[in-house]
Each structure stands twice: as C-alpha cells, then as structure tokens.
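Recall from the previous lesson that a structure prediction takes nothing but the amino acid sequence as input. Here we apply that procedure to Isoprenyl transferase from Spiroplasma chrysopicola DF-1. The sequence below is the only information supplied.
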Amino acid sequence: MSVKGPQHVAIILDGNGRWATAQGLPRTDGHEQGAKQIKTIALAASKMGIKYLTIYCFSTENWNRSVGEVNYLMNMPQRLLQNKQINDFNNEQIRINHIGRTTKMPAKTLEILQDSLAKTKDNKGMILTFAFDYGAVEEMLSAINNIIAEKIPVVDETILANHLYTKDLPLVDLLIRPGGEKRLSNFLLFQSRYAELYFSDKYWPEFDEKCLLAAIMDYNNRNRRFGGITDNE
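The prediction returns the following tokens.
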C-alpha cells in the first residue's frame, strides 16, 4: 500500500532495553526483538513507497555500554542479515547501505555488512541504510579532516555534504524516535536540519506498521517552511 509521505525517513532505535526490563527479560532479549522489528518496519516502509529508510542501530557512544551488551550488539548483523532476510529484502528490491566507521568493528561483523551490500547492490527499490558505529560529530570531523588533506581552499555546503557518509542520500524529511525520549542523540545532525521530528512513547520492539503509518500521517499534516513563511503568515 503506497501512501503519500516523506522521501527519506530516519529512525532512532530506542527502548529495546527498557522494553525487555518491563517484560522481566534480559536487555539482550530486547535487542533481539528490536532487530526483528527492523525487518518488519523496512518491508512496511518499502510497501508504503518510502524511498530511503535510515536506521540508527549502534552509535559511536554505544561503545561505553557493558562489554557483554556491546558484543551482543556487534553480533546483531549476523542474525539480522542472514540469507533468508536478504532474500526477503531482494524480493522487495530493497538495497542495503551502511554509514559509519568500519575500523572498530569485529571482522565478522564487517564481513556480514559488506556481503549484504554486495548481495543487494543491483536492487532498484528502497535504500535501507544501517547507521552502525555512526555518530554525527565523528562523521563531520572525518569529513573536515579529509577536506583538509585534499587541500580544498574554500569549503561550502556542497563540498562538506559530499564528504559525509551520506553523500549519496537526500536530506532527512521525517525523523522518528520511539521510546519516549526527545533528543537526537548525535544522529544525522547535518542531514536533519529541516527534518520534521516525531516522538513516540512506544518502545522500538513494539513500534509496528500502524505506528509508522501514524508518523507519516502526522508528517503529512505538517507545514514545512524550510525557514521561510507562507503567504498567510
């Protein structure tokens, strides 16, 4: 079911641990359920006609969590991007993309990510971007250092944008954060400068297709002015 709505939707995955705690389960069970929800929402978004979906899976600050939780999260791509899941994405023509650092990832995690990119590279449908070991500040610092190394004398918005991980993605139209918190958490700060923000009290593992549709309907009722004003204002 295609619906009128945003071109690029970004989602901060929040509330996995709190969902698990509320169920009397270990935090890792929340991450497991949250990973399953990624596929559910990705397939739903594709059917709704969304062209770009960016999922914030693991931030540069998440390394500060317990060793056990970090190790579990680093192994999530191996469960999320198995052959069956890749086949489901291929059937929907979803192309997988990654933004973020790769230097700190375990070799197996990086291998799984790169393999999923290769297996979906010819798909022509929605681009599903995993922001994994991503942080907006690190992204901008990396871009600035690369610009300095290239000795570019004058830097404008286009040059900076072309040095970001997201250089092939459009600006974010709608940024969704489930879990009840209301902050950006170092996610796509440059790319979300005119995004509409939508906050949900639902934890990510319970954020379903109806919740996504509600966010899109809310977006469609917004008046996006991009810093300007309308004739009636």
